[in-house]
User: Fold these one by one.
Assistant:
Number 1:
Amino acid sequence: MQEKIFRAEKLNTLGEMAASIAHEVRNPLTVVKGFLQLMQADDRQGKFPYLPLVLSELDRAEAIISDYLNFAKPKLEKMEVFDLGEFLDDMVQLLNPLSIKKSVALTGKMETGIQIRTDRNKLRQAVINLMKNAIEATPPGGRVSVTLSAAGTEAEIKISDTGKGMTTEQLARIGSLYYSTKEEGTGLGTMVSLSIIEAMGGKTVYASQPGVGTEVKVFLKRNESHGG
Ligand code: ADP
Ligand code: MG
C-alpha cells in the first residue's frame, strides 16, 4: 500500500482572497436563484423547460462557493465536547441517500465512549468531504465503511472504500489545490478536509491501491477528561 502523510500547508493569503470573492458572489447568486424559483413556480404551461437545469447549475455554483469558503476559513470557532461515535453515526446517516443513489453499501462501526473537544461544524465538513470522495470513487456494488476506535490518547477514524484507488502519482497530488479527476469536481474537498484536520492538531494518512481501494485514517486527540 502506498502511503501519504500530510503536514501543515499554509495558503492563508490565497485563502482570504478566495473567501472574500466567494462571499461577494454568493449574495447575487442567491437573489438570482430566488427569482428563478418564482419563475418556475409560475410556469405552469412549461414555457421554460430549461429552468430545472439552470437551477441545478446554480446549486453547483453554490456548492463550489461553500467549498471555497470552507477552504478559506479552517479556523476553529465554536469548541464543544461531544461523543465522536454518535457524531460519526449521524454522518453515516446523512450520506446514506448518496450511497443508495450510487448503489454503494455504506456502513459504520463506532467504538463507544470516545469524546472529543473541537468545532463540530468544521469536523462535519471535513468528514463529509472524505466520505463523499470514498462513495464517489466506489463502483456500484462496492462498499464504504467508517469505523472509530481509540488509539491511546487519540481517536482513529477510518474511512475505507473498495473504489478505484489511486496510483502513486495521483496520491501525491491529492490535497493540492484544484486537483480533481472528476468531470464536475472542484479539487477543493480534500484540501478543505486536510486543512480543517490540521487546524484541529490532527493528522490524516492515506493508503491506496489502484483497483483495490483507498483507506483514509484521521487521528484526533481525545478529550482529556474522558480517559485515554
Ligand atoms: P473533487 O472531489 O472535487 O474531485 P477532492 O479534493 O475532494 O476534489 O478530491 C481530489 C481527487 O482525489 C478526486 O478527484 C479523486 O481523483 C481523488 N480521490 C479523493 N478521494 C479518493 C478516494 N477515496 N478514492 C479514489 N480517489 C480519490
Ligand atoms: Mg471531493
Number 2:
Amino acid sequence: VGSEAINTDIITLTRFVTEEQAKHKEATGDFTILCHSLQFAFKSIAYYIRRATLINLTGLAGSANTTGDDQKKLDVIGNDLFISAMKGSGRVRLLVSEEEEEVITFDQYPHARYAVACDPIDGSSNLDAGVSVGTIFAIYKLAEGAKGTKEDLLKPGTEMVASGFTMYGASAQLVITMKGGAVNGFTLDTSFGEFILTHPNMRIPKKRAIYSVNEGNSLYWEEPVKEWVNSLKYPTEGGKPYSARYIGSMVADAYRTLLYGGIFAYPADKKSPKGKLRILYECAPMAMVFENAGGLAVDSNMRRMLEVVPEHIHDRSGIFMGSEQEVQKVIDFHKRHQ
Ligand code: AHM
Ligand code: MG
C-alpha cells in the first residue's frame, strides 16, 4: 500500500469534540470530559455484549425494571456501567435511566452542570439472538441556580444540548449531534479503542419507500395509521409498494432509516394510548438526531416530537420519525381525519 492510501489524519471523537469546543469561547471543557465518559460507557457495553454468550451473560437477571419489563443480565450490567461512567465524569448532576425508577443525583458533585437521560441497552429483547441493540442518550445543561431535582429534566427536547446513540452491530456506531448542529457518525475501531469519524454530516434522504413498524399491533391502531400503512402497501395507479423492515431494536431501525431513508414508527394505539417508547431517553434524543439530519419527528398527535414535555421521567409517546416526505405523508393522513 502506498503511504498516500493511509489516513494519518484520523479524527477521533475526542479530537472532534475538542475542535468543536474550540469554536465556543465560553466553553469550559466540561462537555469534552463528559463525552469522554460517555465513550467509555459505550466501549465497555460493546465489549460485554460481544462476549455475552461466552461469559454467561445471556438471559434474565431475575428482576423487573420500573416499567415492568423483565431485566436481562446485560440490562443490569449496561445500566451499572453507564451510571458509573456518568458519575466518574464529575460533570453530571442528574441521571435518568430506563432501568431506574427514580432520578439519580450525584450529590458529591453539587456544581456539575449537566443532566443526562439514557436507555443503557435499548432493544434488549434481541440480545440473546445476537441482534443489534443500542444505547440512547440525551444531554441537558442545568440552568443557573437549578435545584438539581427531576423537574430540571421535565423539559421539552428543544432544551437538549446534545443527543445521540450507539448501535452495537457488526461494529459499534456512535451517532451524535449538538443543538443546532450537524449529525456525525463514528465507528469504534477496536484496535485503537477509539471512535473514528466515518460519517461526517449525515443527511437523511428526503424520501425512501421503506417503512418500519410492528404491524402485529395493527388491530389496535387508530384509523389514520391503518390508512397510512395501507396506502404504502397498496399504492394506487400501479405504483410500487413499500418495503417493510423491522428489527425491533429502535436504535438499529433508526440507524438504517438515517442512512437509507424511510420511516420508523411506534404509534400510540388503543392498547397503549400513550405509546410504548419513552420520551426522555428514546423519543426526544432520536427526534433531535433526525431533525438535525434534515428529517422530521412527530408524536401521535402530529406535534413536533421535540416540543413534547414529559409529565414524569418515564413518560411515553407515540412516534413517527424519518425522511421529511415520509413523515409528511403520515401528517397528511391524520389531517384528513380532523
Ligand atoms: P426496551 O427499551 O424495553 O428494549 O423497548 C424498546 C424497544 C425498541 O428498541 C423497539 O423499537 C421496540 O421496543 C420494539 O417493541 P415491540 O417488540 O413492541 O415491537
Ligand atoms: Mg428502551
Number 3:
Amino acid sequence: MKDAAPQTIYLSDYTPFGWTVESVHLTFRLAPTATRVISKIRFTPTPNAPKQAFFLHGEALTPIRCTIDGQQITPTFTDTGLTCDVPDTAFDWEAEVEISPATNTALEGLYMSNGMYCTQCEAEGFRKITFYPDRPDVMATFTVRIEGAEPVLLSNGNPIAQGDGWAEWHDPWPKPAYLFALVAGDLINHPDRFTTQSGRDVELNIWVRPGDQDKCAFGMEALKKSMKWDEDVYGREYDLDIFNIVAVDDFNMGAMENKGLNVFNSSCVLASPDTSTDLNFERIEAIIAHEYFHNWTGNRITCRDWFQLCLKEGLTVYRDSQFTADMRSEPVKRISDVIQLRARQFREDNGPLAHPVRPESFVEINNFYTATVYEKGAELIGMLKTLVGDDAYYKALDLYFTRHDGDAATIEDWLKVFEDATGRDLTQFKRWYSQAGTPRLSVSEAFTDGTYTVTFRQDTPPTPGQDVKDPRVIPIAVGLLNPNGDEVLPTTILEMTEVEQSFTFEGLATRPVPSILRGFSAPVILHRDSTNEERAFLLAHDTDPFNKWEAGRALARDGLIRMIRNGDAPDTSYLDSLTAVVRDDTLDPAFRALALGLPSQDDLAQTLFDMGNTPDPQAIWQALETLKQATAQHMQDLLPRIYAQYQVDGEYAPDAAQSGARALANAALGLLTRLDGGAQAQKQYDAADNMTQQLAAFACLLSAGNGDAATADFYDQWKHDRLVIDKWFTMQIVQADPDQAAAITRTLTAHPDFSMKNPNRFRATLGALAMNPAGFHHASGAGYAVLADWLIQLDPLNPQTTARMCSSFETWKRYDPDRQALIATQLDRILAQPGLSRDTREMVDRIRK
Ligand code: PHE
Ligand code: ZN
C-alpha cells in the first residue's frame, strides 16, 4: 500500500450524507484475534440531499460478505472504506467483517485491555468495527447482540434479553456511531440506584476488574450527585433504565460519554484514600460529572461535524466546572481553572499549534481534542453567561434543549438560541469561535475632579494562518476600592467592543484602586502598569477572591522576573505580604495554599519571551529555587505553626474542607523541608495513612535529594497497584534535579514495570519529563532526545497518544538558537520515520514550521 498524501478536511466542504439510517442491528461474535461483526442497516435516501456516491467508512476490516436486500454484492474497497451501487429506494444493507481486538494497540475501535474487550469510537473509531457512515450527523437507533464467553456483556441503552454466552441491548435514543460502546469481560459491579425527578428508577453500576471493587464508592456518590445537580440546575433528567460505568486500564484519554455506557480510564474513576490524593478525588468527581452531563450536552444534542466539537466539549466543561464550584469552593475552583487555562491553553494559543475554538480545517481530528476546544471553549460559555446574565442564560439553555433535542447541531444553532432568547446580536461574539490567539488587554487610567477614567486597548497577535484579528467583545468585570480598602464600586461588567474604549466613573472622593478582570471574566492577558504597593494592597483588600490571588501572583511574577533579568534578590515586601496572607486564619486554607504557589517555569518563560528576552530554563529554575528558599527562611517562625495547626485528625474525607487543610499544611511542609532537610517530611511519610500525605512527603524527600529510601519503600508498598506506581514513576522525574531528569527518565523506561502499551504508564514517565522544564530543556539536549526516542517507538503502536505528546515541543521557538537546533534535530528525526502516522506527522509538521 502506498502512503497516500494526508488529506485536509475543511469545514466549508460540509455536505450532508445522502441517506438516512433508520436502524442498526449489530451482532458481535467475540474472539481475541478473529471477532466477527455482522451489521444490518436500513438505509433510506434522504430527499433533496446533494447527489453523491454511496460510501461507507471502514478501516482495518477484513470483509467476509456484503449484501443489499439479501443479494451478494462486490463493493470497491479502498484504504478508508467502500463504495458500491445502491437502489434509489430504501434498502437493507448487511455485512460481515472480521477484526482483531487483541492486536489493536491503537486503542481505537474494539480492543482488548487485560483480557477485557472494550471499544473507543470517538471520534472515528467505529469505522474500525464495521462499514458505516461514521460521521456524527448520521444518527440511528442501535440494537446489539453480543456473543462471548465473558460473564459480563454490555452495550448502550437498556438490556433486552440475555442467556448463557450472549446478551442483547437496545438503545432507543438515536445516536451517532461515535457514541457506540461494547464491553465484555470478567467484571465486578458496584451497584446502586437513583430515582429521577419524574420518578424513573435507574439502575447504576460501576464495573471494574476483580480487586478494584473497593475503589468504586466515591465514583458512585459523584455520579448520583451529578444526576441530581443536572436536574436541579439545568432541569435535565436521565433517560434510560440503566447507567453503566466501566473502568479500563488502557485508555488514550480520560473517559468517554457513550450513551448509557461510559468508559473510563481507570485513573479517572477508581478512588480510595490509600491510593488516591485529594486532587485525584476532585478530578474523579469532575470527570464523572463531565461524562454524565454529556448525556444532554453531547448525546441528546450532538455535533453536526467534528469542527463543532466545542459545542459539546466547551459546554460540558463549563457545566462540570459549575458543578465542582457548587460541590466545593467556587473561588478555589476558579483559581485552579485559570492556572490550568494559562498553563495549557494560553501556551497553545501562543505557539505553532494555535487554532480557533472552532477550527476550520484538520488532517486528523484526534489532534483537536485540545485545551483550546475544551477549556477556552468553556471560557466562551462563561463569557456568554456574563454578558446575558444568569436568568437569560438558563432561558437560552432551555430553548437549546427543546429546540435541538435529537439534533446534530452547530455553533450557529447555539448562538441563535441565545439571540432568540435574549434579543442580543452575537455577530461580534462569534469571533471568539473563529479567531485563534489570546487577546492582550492593556489598561491606562486617569483621575480628575472625582472622575476616574479607565481605557482599554485590545490586541491579538497573529496566529498560524490568521494574520489579522478583529476586535472582540470582552466582558471586563471591574470593582473599585478606595485607599482605605473599602469597596466603592462593587463588581460591574464593562462591555468592550472596540479596539480601544474608555469607561468613566464619577463622583469619587479619592483616586480609586481598580480591581480589573475580576473572576477572570475573559480569557485575555491583562497588561497594566501597576506598582507593587498597589498589588500588595489588592492582595490584602480585594473582595474578589480571584483578583486577590491574582495580585499575589503578579507580585511573585514581577519579583521573579527581576531576579532573572537583573539578578535582584527576592523581594522582601512580597514576602511580607505573602506571610500576612498565610498567617491570616480567617482566609480559606485552600486559598492560602494557592497563594503560596508560584508562577510555573513555563509561565515565566513565556513572560520573559513576551518582554523580548530569551528565556533560560536553568536560570528560571534557579530563581524559583532561590525564592522558595527565601520564603522558607522568611516564614520560618510561622511554618511550624501552620503545619501543626492544619493537620487533619479523624477519619479521612476527600472533601473541600479537609483537602484545603492538607493542601496548606503540605505547602508548609514543602517549605519546611528546605529548612530541615526533610526531617519532618520523613516523619509524615512514615506516619501517613492516606495517599495525599504519603505522596506529599515523598515529593518533599525527593526534592531535598533525600528520597532514596522512600523511593524503594514506596515501590515495595505499592508494586501491586498500577495507578500508584504511575505516581511513583512521575514523582521521581518531576522532582529530579534538572541535571539528572533525562537520565532518570531513561533509567525508568528500562524498569520492568515500564510499558509502552499502557498510555497511563507512558505518560507517567515521558509526560512527566516535560513537567520538569529545566530538565526537559537541559542544554545537553538529553531531555529532547529521550522523549523523541520514545515517541518514535510508540508511534507505530499508538499514534493518538504519540501525537498528543508531541506538544511538549510546542514552545521551542521561545528558546536560544542552540536549543532550537537540538529540538529541530529531534523533530526532523521524527518526521523522517518511515510510515509515521498521520496523527504524529500533522502535529510535528505544525510544530516544526
Ligand atoms: N469525549 C470525551 C470527553 O471529553 C473525550 C474523548 C475523546 C475520549 C476522544 C476518547 C476519545 O468526555
Ligand atoms: Zn467531554
